[in-house]
Amino acid sequence: MKAPLAKDIFEPATVAEAVDLLKEKSDSVCLIAGGTDLLPWLKDGLLAPDYLVDIAGLPLNYIKGSPAKGFKIGATTTMKEIRISGSIKRGLPVLAAAAAQVGGPQTQELATIGGNLCTASPAGNLVTVLLALEAQVKLLGPDGERVVPLGEFFRGPKETVIEDSELMTEVVIPPLPRKYGADYIKFTLRREMDIALVGVAVMIVPDGTKVGKIRIALGAVGPVAFLAQAAQKILEGKKYSDKTVAEAVKAAIDRCSFISDVRADARYRREVAAVLLRRAIAAAWTTAKGGK
Amino acid sequence: MSAKKYVGRSVQDVNAVNKVTGASIYAPDLYFPRMLYGVMIRSTHPHARIKMINVNKARKAEGVVAVVTYRDFPGLGFGTYVYDQTIFTDHPRFVGDPIGAIAAESLAAAQKALELVKIEYEILPHLLDPEEAMKPDAILLHPNMHNYEECGFPGFFNYLKDTNCPNQFRLRKGDVEEGFRQADYVIESRISLPQIYHGQLETHGCVCQFTPDGNLIVNTSTQGAFLAREMLSHSLGIPMNKVEVNQTTVGAGFGGKISVNLEPRCAALSSKCGYRPVKMVLSREEDWQTVFTRSGLTGYYKTGVNKDGAIIARKVNLYWDSGAYADYEVSVARSAGYMSAGPYDIPNIWIDSHAVYTNKLIATAYRGFGCSETTFCYEQDMDIIADELGFDPIKFRLQNAHQTGSINATGQRIKSCALPDCITGVTDKAKELKLKKSSNGPIKRGYGIACMHKFTVHTVPTTDILKLNEDGTFILETSAQDLGQGSSTVMCQIAAEVLGVNMDKITVVPVRTNYTGYGWQTAASSKTFFNGNSTIMAATQVREKLLEYASIKLNLPISDLDTKDGTVFCKSDPKISLPFSALSMGVFNDEGGQLGGPIVGYGVFTIPDGSGLDKETGQGRRPSAFWMYAAMIAEVEVDTETGKVKVLKLITANDVGKAINPRKVRGQIIAGAIQGLGSAIFEEVLFDDQGRVLNANMHDYKMPTICDIPDDIFVDIIETSPHPDGPFGAKGVGEPSMACPAAAIANAVANALGGRIRTMPITPDKVLAVIKKEGK
Amino acid sequence: MKREIHCKINGEKRTFRADLCSTVLDVLRDVLNLTGTKSSCETGDCGACTILWNGEAVNACLLLANRMEGSEITTIEGVMKGGKLDPIQKAFIEEDASQCGFCTPGFILRVKSLLRENPNPSEEEIKLALAGNFCRCTGYIDIIAAVKNAAMKLKG
């Protein structure tokens, strides 16, 4: 028998209990929800907490809302639940598509939206898409609740602003305009079961032939996923054209610090990010204008 | 040929029920009373000497029963062809080289004790590249190589003294330099290929136990129980009758379980454990960091061709990255040498194929002994030549292709070859499917062909023992090890066919060296041919005995008797018959006396005219029992903006002689195609500058998933050239299936892009680099 | 921390002691000796350890033992009922979809959950559903055929 992965595991019945446990065991504790990222780290010894707090049983598993009102998704909602949710498939298909590409079906049964965000991999599927959707996260700690825009949530790879005794309770997606288009392209070597070499998410709100609002999120191209603000500025308020898009793409790419790792080198990431960004913007625009 | 009941039919696998119910027992599933768990103490440096090792704290740790190091087993060596490895080493030659081992009551206790071992190293310079390792001033990783004892087959080990080359295979035919002088066109190319993993779902594992009477019992996931016995016997100094090696159900091999790695170490450890069994099973990560890979290759090809399309000369220089020890690579370098000029009639050939030591984990045999890699080299050159000289790539290949009766590079006259049928088979299919090069915005489509040949063994006899039980059922002890490829089913089909009995009356048992007749290992696509023949011999003997006894009992001439459905019957009056059970103990006479006795058939097969090869010229009469051939056309789609390659179709034709079980043959062909696809576009073992593996896990080392297979795979099983010496004409198929895909895909990508990639895997970054270079 | 766990495994009520922070895979194999569920990658990448947990196909290597409490688990040992092969098992045999067999238990359990959710999957749906199960021996074509065969059997 291999060694157990921690000394003990607690199953709080309420969110408040969970927060208390985090505070009490704060010297050496880790939250577990889906465990699909956490367990491999525990097995590798990358993390070695004495205690685990299992929050999968907490009432944080829900999908509420609509495109008009915005969505509230509980932090322990699984990828599968997001993938098959009728309201998400209809109202926010880009999120369903991103959830469907997290690992494989077995992973999606367990992996949670909160976990994807708290793992804070710059390549995270939901990380990238939720950034483009300007999501916010609700964090609950001993001192109460705070709301953090996702753009301010990530500090570095595997690092977030979550305090030791805080847990994420909810992901809030603001109301979506009636007419918008979104696209997520996850570039991988294999068709499925792969971590993004480059991930691009785009949300566009048209204003006639102009780009009313655009959010461009880039993942796996730097230490954190981020919004390409310079590129957004180039496109917003301007008439949509291939030329303007090309300009915006260049601006975005020039500001990225591409990483080389075991999956791809920086030069290739730069080349393919530019292509994917152009394609994602075009696809989002087409959807926004009512096409397929 | 009369209609066959079993041979040529796609009958159900004899082990299928246990597999689909989870009842098959693999090495990790073995649990014995008082069993201990073993872990390896491994080097963390690629090349070093151990200055100090302190295991005192580890020995005293909770649950620890034994800790052993190289100090406990000095000088005991093993190896597949040359004894260049020691059980534990004080001179580690790769990151992961075993220095010692720990046995404890639980895996957790053993792993905890591992952290208490203290080692001090004297770091030595290390080599990671085979060409660097062959430079005249390179440090010698095995300075004592010339004193190593040879084992296995005499004449295999042709080391180059004072180098890092434990084997150089030489082949000299005609006069290459004269050939190049006469040729109208000469091309040269350099190819560099990385290591890849076999990727068996079951990692390496075994359980070893000594008994008080001095026997060693080993249960292991192996392709070579008898080879393992030999290595254990030699390295531990135990006679073979006291070493029992039992094959568990094996979770695939592909060549990666052909030699030993864990067994000598686990056995040595267990010798200090008070006769308790010790289980050693590697995690995925440890397996991929420390056990086997397919060798990397740096290859140089020079080919001379005439305007009329005849290939006049080929010169080949190969450097196989063997890793830290010679293990099987000695044989791979040699065997790849035989094949590396390709399945073409070439009058002037020069081949130098070198195994080279580097400070990385050990390379071993992998589905083809170098045929995938060398096919990748020469088939791309064929397309380059065709393109340059305006030849049709199909006609160019057909013009030069081997046929039955051709004499190949080794001087062997080929008795069975349907390569032209394979080439026309895939070409006709491609025409039917209207494959063509095309462009749709950034997406380009292309297709390409590759063909190959593969040899097998000549001197590896196989044994089959067939026993008749009292009730008319049979036990077949075959030396063919079923790794999932279906050899047990095929032997059962053959035995049933020869005997005239239903297949469900025959149980084929796994290899246990105390009981099974000798058969070195399961490799080289040879089991159907060799064990098929020894099974025919054994079954024929049994059948003859049955006829003899029936003749006495029924008072009929043997010529009037035949067998069918488990009975011996009279041909002229079929109502007269006896079930096998009535003859199983011989014949009883009226006095109650017994003539004869239990019936056992015994077959030992090897080819009578096999030969080695001359050490200087690589020429011989029959170095391979048979040769196999295949052709494949791949259609690909390339996204020229991202560089991503998608394989749309694979069309393949394999020359198998005779398909004893067509569905199993098809299964091997498809599986090899997908494994080849993986090597072509996804797979590569990545190392850091210390030779440590960076991607020893299944998300960073990318094997094809079900979503990565082509939309269509077309399989043509070619039986137009049955082998005169093969069982019912059969040859083999397991390895050729993997040889063509990478080459065909590379040629297809070149067809689509106009630029060529001379390495594997063909990843998007390399595609973009070629597009940029070609300015397309 | 070792605790008593109560759950249903293959239809049978079981009570046993195990460490809640061990993986379900380790508990199944080493405590309950149900060795049909295989360990291959231990990182949730290969699907060899797929079990049904409360009816859903998950990787046992990524589930901790505390999740066994009060749950219903099906392993490969529980697929055959009353000595009769399940239609999925029959289909795998008929289509020669199992070679070395190491991946087979994981596939069969995943297929069980797939066909319950989607009794008539298209080839594309089959591929996406089985994306998390690796096979190195068959090249997958015969496995796809087995799923289609099993779907027909279950319909009839």
Descriptive overview:
The complex is a heterotrimer of chains A (292), B (776) and C (156). Chain A is of the alpha+beta class and 292 residues long. Chain A contains eleven helices and 14 strands. Chain A has a five-stranded antiparallel beta sheet. In chain A, β8 (154-156) and β9 (159-160) form a beta hairpin. In chain A, α5 runs antiparallel to α8, α9 packs antiparallel against α10 (242-254) and α10 packs antiparallel against α11 (266-288). The radius of gyration of chain A is 19 Å and the shape is globular. The model of chain A has no long low-confidence stretch (mean pLDDT 94). Chain C is of the alpha+beta class and 156 residues long. Chain C has a five-stranded mixed beta sheet with strand order 2-1-5-3-4, with helices on both faces. Chain C is globular. The chains are: A alpha+beta (292), B alpha+beta (776), C alpha+beta (156). At the B-C interface, α1 and α15 of B face α2, α3, α4 and α5 of C.
Structural key phrases:
heterotrimer; B: 776 residues; alpha+beta; C: 156 residues; five-stranded mixed beta sheet; 5 helices; 33% helix; 17% strand; globular
List the helices and strands and how they pair.
The complex is a heterotrimer of chains A (292), B (776) and C (156).
Chain A: E1 8-10, H1 15-24, E2 29-32, H2 38-44, E3 51-54, E4 63-66, E5 70-74, H3 79-84, H4 86-91, H5 93-100, H6 105-110, H7 113-119, H8 125-132, E6 136-141, E7 144-149, E8 154-156, E9 159-160, E10 167-173, E11 181-187, E12 198-207, E13 210-219, E14 226-227, H9 229-235, H10 242-254, H11 266-288
Parallel strand pairs in A: 1-3, 2-3
Antiparallel strand pairs in A: 4-5, 5-10, 6-7, 6-10, 8-9, 11-12, 12-13, 13-14
Helix pairs in contact in A: 5-8, 9-10, 10-11
Chain B: H1 16-20, E1 36-42, E2 48-54, H2 56-60, E3 64-69, E4 77-78, E5 85-86, E6 98-104, H3 107-114, E7 118-123, H4 130-133, E8 167-173, H5 176-182, E9 185-193, E10 205-210, E11 216-220, H6 225-236, E12 243-247, H7 262-270, E13 278-281, H8 284-290, E14 293-294, E15 296-305, E16 311-323, H9 329-339, E17 348-357, E18 363-364, H10 371-389, H11 393-400, H12 419-432, E19 438-440, E20 443-454, E21 462-468, E22 474-478, H13 487-499, E23 506-509, H14 527-554, E24 561-564, E25 567-570, E26 577-579, E27 587-588, E28 594-595, E29 600-605, E30 628-639, E31 645-655, H15 662-681, E32 712-718, H16 736-753, H17 764-774
Parallel strand pairs in B: 1-13, 11-12, 14-18, 16-17, 22-23, 31-32
Antiparallel strand pairs in B: 1-6, 2-7, 3-6, 4-5, 8-17, 9-15, 10-11, 10-13, 15-16, 19-20, 20-30, 21-22, 21-29, 24-25, 25-26, 27-28, 30-31
Helix pairs in contact in B: 6-7, 10-16, 13-14, 15-16
Chain C: E1 2-9, E2 12-19, H1 24-31, E3 50-53, E4 56-59, E5 72-74, H2 87-94, H3 104-117, H4 123-129, H5 141-155
Parallel strand pairs in C: 1-5
Antiparallel strand pairs in C: 1-2, 3-4, 3-5
Helix pairs in contact in C: 2-5
